[in-house]
Structure formats: structure tokens, C-alpha cells
Specification:
There is one protein chain. Helices cover 71% and strands 0% of the residues. The chain contains 8 helices and no strands. Helix 1 crosses helix 2. The longest helix has 28 residues, at 71-98. The radius of gyration is 28 Å and the shape is elongated.
Amino acid sequence: MEDDDAGLWARVRQGDELALAALFDRYEGRVFRHASRLLTHREDAKDAVTVAFFELWRKRASVRLVEGSPLPWLLNTVAHCARNLERSGRRYRALLDRAPVAEPVSHDQDDSGVMVALRRLPEREQSVVVLSVLEGYSEREVAQALGVPAGTVKSRLARAKAKLRDDLAREGVQA
């Protein structure tokens, strides 16, 4: 098995993922340092490296090597990725700056305590209550959405209503 770039590249072109992993191990550090110089955030640099190696694999039939090495192609590709990430980041920040600032919504402003009681239910019962009572789906539709028999939906809904009624009665709320 050849250990140089040309040998690994020949294996990559034939679809050998282990050869790509070997190239990744060999060049990831250099490609990451290059991306880090171009980008402000470390996570963006990681993303750029990931995209560059993904593109190397995806375009392996048409990648041009320089002196038998894919490193120059990777450095060029990571630079393009970095520019794209910076550009999309600027657009996103500009969009956020133009967006109206909304008052934070507090889900605990439920004066009746119903939502607090609902959150105390087990997740399976919460799902049934939300879909059938709050969203208005029929028991058959809820059963289909949750992948359970309609009878299970009925029994979960009955248990949930009883728990909610008891919970709200303890809190002094009329159900």
C-alpha cells in the first residue's frame, strides 16, 4: 500500500474512504489553520474544513493535484468556503439588525395554571392533550400521528384529563 499523496489519491479516486481518512489525518491541521486565519469563529473554521473535505470526496474525479498533492486544492476550497461563511454570516447579522425586537414571551404567564399542570403530565399524555384538545385533531388523527391505536389515545386522554382536573383542584382552579 502506498503511503504518499499520489498513492492515497489513486485509492480515493477509486472510492476508498480509508484513503480519504488518511489524507484527512495528514492535512486537516494545515487546512484548519488556513481556515482559522480567514474566519473569526473557530466553529466556522471547522465547518469550512468539513465542507472542503466533503467537496474533495464529492469531486474526486475532477480534482487537479499540484505536484501529486491535493493540499493546494483543499486550501483553495477552504478559502472559498470561508468567504461564503463570512458572507452568509454578514447577511444573517444584517437581517437580525433589521428584525423588530419582540417582547420576550413568558410561558409561565398562565394565570390559570393550566399550562403548568399540562407540563407536569407524562410526555405521552401531553402529546395526546396537545394534539386533541389544543390543536383540535380527532382521536383517529391523533392515533395516526402518534402511531398508536385509537383506544390508546382515548385512555391516555381520559387519564390526562383526570390528572389535570386533580392537579388544578389542588391549586384551587375550577376545571
